[in-house]
Write a structure and sequence with these properties.
This protein has about 300 residues and is of the alpha/beta class. Strands 3-2-1-4-5-7-6 form a seven-stranded mixed sheet, with helices on both faces. Helix 1 packs across helix 2. Bound molecules: S-adenosylmethionine. S-adenosylmethionine binds next to helix 2.
Amino acid sequence: MYHNPVLLQKSVEGLNIIPNGNYVDVTFGGGGHSKAILQKLVDGKLIAFDQDADALKNTIDDDRFVLINHNFQFLKNFLRLHKLEKVDGILADLGVSSHQFDVPERGFSTRFDAPLDMRMNNSQPVKASDIVNTYSEEELKRLFRDYGEIKNSGCFSRAITEAREIKPIVTTNELIDCVKKCFPQHKKNKFLAQVFQALRIEVNDEMQTLKLLLEQANELLAPGGRLVVISYHSLEDRLVKNFIKSGNFKGIVEKDFFGNPIVSFKQITRKPIMPDDIEIENNSRARSAKLRIAEKI
Ligand SMILES: C[S@@+](CC[C@H](N)C(=O)[O-])C[C@H]1O[C@@H](n2cnc3c(N)ncnc32)[C@H](O)[C@@H]1O
């Protein structure tokens, strides 16, 4: 299976679909969420994005549907191209698909020895191996600290810069080998997941593209339109939470001249919705998912 959609019912319900409305699924993947949206639409339209060319094979043959093989950071431009000024809902199911994790040569998984790639879009020039072999020790330290949330990030950056003096690091196993002295064996999986997460975020510029998406969503949603975001790690979730609350990424609500808060969204979910035990049992990728829903004022 290409991808088992996470929080499918709750996220699509969160869009509060109007049968003749216009919707966007910015992370098409295997198309699970898109298909569920189309089932609720009558003569509306669904525009979907995925930057991974592999996702194109899952396209849906339906006159109401368009799949765009580009980064969702270009959302506004492509909606304009399709003559859409405003939309009634935007759904983002962030991160990588199971397909991307499960194909060894994509280099996303710690489970396989493979080229250190991690690009969602294979035509983009920078791979994870370019980052580990060219970033300074200080840049690598920052990356593992900020994107991997690793406390002893200095050990990892030093291990990498020392190893690459001898030979460039080009495979997942070479990377794992050189950093293994930085964590106890029984915490191997946790640390490696953090290292791989940090590199993946950097390769795909995930934090910056998420910011661009949220800002454009604010501009493009019609009043009453819904923003539905499923995130998989705390860095993403914090950005989404702050933006929904305050319209900025720091989460500081500004006030007008009269002291009234200036907000663009009504929070539909004050606390994120998480998958229940049954979903997690059936789909381990759902484990870290957090769903937030907001309505444009
Ligand atoms: C978690 S999967 C989505 C799965 C999908 N909801 C489903 O039901 O199959 C995330 C997908 O979004 C794509 N993606 C992630 N970031 C993107 C971006 N900035 N622009 C376009 N596509 C992106 C990935 O390539 C991946 O296929």
